[in-house]
Design brief:
alpha+beta; Four Helix Bundle (Hemerythrin (Met), subunit A); two-stranded antiparallel ribbon; flat
Length: 83
């Protein structure tokens, strides 16, 4: 799991869910249906892709409205040095 995905998962998890292990089950209940995941799959294949999708859509909407946002705004400050 990426650091960003892990941080996001911890930010939205309840205190009890923060102690889940990779193979532990997670159940997401909605009106009319129930989704069952393993903890690792929930973060890696559900939460993280959804977060990136919604960030990308926000970026697209801002650009469509004329906001001057680009890759650097998404990535934040560089984490590398240039020699």
């Amino acid at each position: 799991m990426s650091e960003a995905g892990g941080a996001l998962a911890l930010a939205i998890a309840t205190p009890a869910e923060r102690h889940l292990r990779n193979g532990d089950p997670i159940v997401v209940e909605r009106v009319g249906h129930r989704r069952r995941f393993l903890a690792s799959a929930f973060v890696d294949r559900y939460v993280t892709p959804n977060a990136y999708f919604h960030l990308a859509m926000i970026h697209a909407l801002l650009r469509a409205c004329g906001a001057r946002v680009g890759k650097a705004d998404f990535e934040g400050p560089p984490v590398y040095t240039v020699d």
